[in-house]
Amino acid sequence: MAESQSNTSVDRRTFVADGLRMVGAIGLAGFAGFLAGRRGGPGEMVWQIDPGKCIACGNCATHCVLDESA
Description:
Blueprint: H1 12-39, H2 59-62
């Protein structure tokens, strides 16, 4: 039986070059994801009462009022 063995050994230079390409590609994808996440963030938050949850108890006027609210 004659088995055909292909020479698939990788030398050090090819291994390091491929590794650096992979690290660069993963780093670039991570940085792009970071930038995309920063751009889609919410704007400035405001304090307001949810009319769907309000039962007109008046506690918001005494317990939950912030300095900035009316």
